Amino acid sequence: MTIRFTASRRRFLGQTTALASATMLSPLSSTATAMAASANDRPALGLIGAGRMGHNHMRFAKGMCDLVAVCDVDSNHRQKAIDKIFDGDAKNAKGFVDYRKVLDMDEVDVVYIATPDHWHAKILIEAMRAGKDVYCEKPLTLTIDEGKKVRQVEKETGRIVQVGTMQRSYLDLFVKAVAMAGDGRLGRITRATAAIGGGGGSGPIPEHDVPQWLDWNQWLGPAPETPFRWTPDPKLGPDDWVIGKTNCHQTFRSWLDYSGGSMTDWGAHHVDISMWAFRQAGQSDTVVSVGGESKFPVPYQDGYPTRKDQYHTASSFSMTATMSDGTELVINSGGRNGVLLEGTKGRIFVSRGDLTGKPVEDLQDDPLPADAIAKTYKGLPTPYSEHKNHWANFFHCTRERVEPISDVTSHLRAIDLCHLANISARFDRPMRWDGDKEEIVGDDAANALLSREYRKGFEIQG
């Protein structure tokens, strides 16, 4: 008999070890069929945020789930997703403007959150409380205080949360680099350098009438009320998506009300890999201080931009964090995008395109142990590569009720460092961090930025 994958079944699986064991996959299946599910077994997914990221990344989940609901405040995004995701197989999906309608659907098993960053924590918390497992794009939070709330609710609800830091599923590159660190090929790591790129200025962007296809109030959500700004691309028609200079959609990462800029965008990837390597090598990932140099496209005063009519997240920076054992993690806007790991026995560089360095060359004559990648990947199945494997990992973990490869706790350690680096840059002074109290030492003004005010009606409850 085929059992339909529903929310109630997920809860039952989480409570019944015998049934979970009966469906357990082999630790390292190398075939795609090991993760395949029949149409009747596929979880029903609700997509919240159907813009470029949400739309494009859903293609990696094809064949593993059924898309039954699409929510977006932009009617163009929403309809395009329903018409085209899964090659039209989602045409019967329900469309919504309000994400809460998706969370209220009993038939929705899992939720994919691909909204702008300022919405992530609120929707994630409410989705977990609604009994949904969640794949959420990075970063999970806009502030360190939001991370505390996410951790608490995850613990209370027992939901499975996969963070969209898909580099953790790049088996031949990032996972291999971390496995090398864990196998001692670098010796003691003394420094990691995460080159993540910077931002840029825009000049003043004028206020613009809100397009008829956009619910601007719902797009803003928890963020402060502010005019819609847009310099449209003259080559596009009035009903096209927002492309050009704007405080919406593709350029939201250039505004502090919605994002931490490149620091929390690419930093969520490369800082995460650096700290993962530290842990795998048996070293500390506990931050004690951060400081450095940065530049912004507008002047700052008391930690805030003096102009809010144009892009204002950091354009360039070089910030150094020190771990409790003295290891340094440098976050640079310059240099080739990727992670450089330097140790007492050698150094390696890893990016989305390559893995290089003498310790890598030495693998030809002295390969890693056969189980090195498996141990690094928590012994979870690896039927695919890269993005597709990251989705397969998520669905496997929802079935087996085990921690996914991109877990909440380790992600928050990395993204909290990125938040701290941003705060240090905004005040242009070094910060000392008390990890036990989760506060900046002796700096009330900086500590005020550990949280944010939410617009009335969009608060995070509890």
Give the key terms.
alpha/beta, single chain, six-stranded parallel sheet, 16 helices, Dihydrodipicolinate Reductase, domain 2, Rossmann fold, disordered N terminus, 2 domains, nine-stranded mixed sheet, 462 residues, 19 strands
Q: Sheet bearing the most strands, described?
A: 9 strands, mixed
- Number of DSSP E strands: 19
What is the percentage of strand-forming residues? 15-25%
Number of structural units classed as domains? 2
The helix fraction, in percent, is: 25-40%
Task: Please compute the radius of gyration using only Cα atoms.
Answer: 22 Å
Look at the structure and give the mean pLDDT.
91
What is the 3D form?
globular
Beginning-to-end CA distance, first to last residue: 42 Å
Provide structural commentary:
31% of the residues lie in helices and 18% in strands. By secondary structure, it is of the alpha/beta class. It has two domains: 7-167 and 389-400, NAD(P)-binding Rossmann-like Domain (Rossmann fold, 3-Layer(aba) Sandwich), CATH 3.40.50.720; 169-199 and 261-376 and 408-450, 2-Layer Sandwich (Dihydrodipicolinate Reductase, domain 2), CATH 3.30.360. The strands form four sheets. It has a nine-stranded mixed sheet. Strands 3-2-1-4-5-6 form a six-stranded parallel sheet, sandwiched between helices. α3 (52-57) links the parallel β1 and β2. α8 runs parallel beside α11 and α11 (267-280) packs across α15. It is globular. The two termini are 42 Å apart.
